[in-house]
Amino acid sequence: MILRFLLAVFIFIGRAGAEELTLPAAIEWLHQQAIRCARGSIIKAHEGTSLFTPDGSAHYQALWTRDFFYLLEGCPEGLSEEEARTCFRYLLKGQREDGAMPDRVQADGLAVYIPGPVGAGIGPLPALDNPAFMVKIMDLLLPPGSSEELYLQSREALARGLEFPKTSPSGLLWVDPGDPHSSYGFFDTIFLTGEVFFASVLQWEAYKILAKFETRIGKEENARAFQMKADQLFQALQKFWDPSSGMFRAASQDCNQIDIWGSAYSVYSGLANTDQARRIAEYLIKNHSHLMQRGQLRHCAPGEYWQRSLTPRNQYQNGGYWATPFGWWFAAVHPLDKNLAEKTFLELVQDFRTHGIHEWILEEKSAVPDYVASACQPLVGLRRCGYPLPR
After folding, report:
1. 28-49: per-residue pLDDT in tens?
2. 3-state helix, strand, coil in the chain (%, to 5)
């Protein structure tokens, strides 16, 4: 079965390379590559679990919480239901007694809570986003009509996880400017401080999910409590809206700058209202040539770099261009400029075919080949906008 699939991939690559790239061919090619990257990322845990790591080049050798979500959301065909559930349980087993969810769990079973090297992580506290991503993984594993057994087994742990991050009085997730740490893992070398936008959006989504599942199991009082927290966050998140730019800002203190990824995600997640979504799309379209490179998107505004960063300019999260947020960008731009959205997707796929699928790029620079989120996440935008994806 696997040999037959690989042969089909090689035949398709050869055929696509000899023909002009069409949109259906680009979608099919990327979907096949997403499956290939997912399967190529597997390492075996000490007890035999297949762990889906962030890449197929043995750079990040552990099961990362958020990266696993991005695989599962973008290309569920890349793994079986049993593999997905086993990885979820493997991560959940790493929850600390105080509620902290792991950033990653290694093949030897060691749960690591702070991004960065073991024993020399980035900041004093775990990243803020992992509890929400655990809830979001569970949500993907239990579509409507499925058994609630997995939720019943994990609901207390998931709820306890969401209570771990520090918050401001308004409920927004909070990073102490005097003792900064990672908020959202794809910003982990960027010290956003005060109230933070992206991680709070994820928290808002997670509370809505728990409210939905508590309703499914007949716990209406609990559902109302979670929905109340979600509603409070929704209102509080509006403080990040910058009417002068038509974008959301990243944080209330350090790095109080336009958040390109977060603004695109606000449209994809449904946080942005109709007028906000239109203005975000207009900004992304107007600044397209300064935000995109070969179909990949930078984190902050044109000509800007993060004000407080562990990473030098024009490296990694501080000026590099990434494919991970492409799907959100596509979903944001497509309603206003379908042609630009499709053209940019073709540019992205052509770059992948020519140079490989990397974590990030900048001109001739690139890092971490066969990066799973780069292959999988662009597909979520196409799916959201109604493009048929292979199964």
Report:
1. 999 999 999 999 999 999 999 9
2. 50, 15, 35
